[in-house]
Design brief:
Oligomer: single chain
Number of helices: 3
Helix content: 55-70%
Order of helices and strands: HHHEE
Distance between the termini: 70 Å
Number of strands: 2
Low-confidence stretches: 74-78
Mean pLDDT: 76
């Protein structure tokens, strides 16, 4: 178990770092703050993800083929009929 002195020191160190960070942010103008936050964001989340990965696109035809095996719409003299073969 940590001693009271080490806990107290850790708390004061953390508060001091917090105050220094806030003082640094307050000293910047809006544009510099914006640049700093964007650079922090990019540094934390990464610069770029690979966009080469192509996800398969599922079309309506694919959905019908999976759900009904084969669905054929035949138009005869203006009437549409749906034939489903399982």
């Amino acid at each position: 178990m940590a001693s009271f002195g080490s806990l107290k020191s850790a708390i004061f160190d953390r508060e001091e770092k917090k105050q220094q960070y806030q003082a640094n942010i307050r000293g910047l103008n809006a544009f510099d703050r914006h640049k700093k936050f964007l650079n922090d964001y990019v540094g934390f989340y990464g610069k770029e993800k690979s966009t080469d990965v192509k996800l398969p696109v599922k079309t309506d035809h694919d959905t019908l083929r999976e759900g009904y095996r084969y669905a054929f719409v035949v138009c005869i003299r203006g009437l549409a009929r749906l034939y489903v073969t399982l």
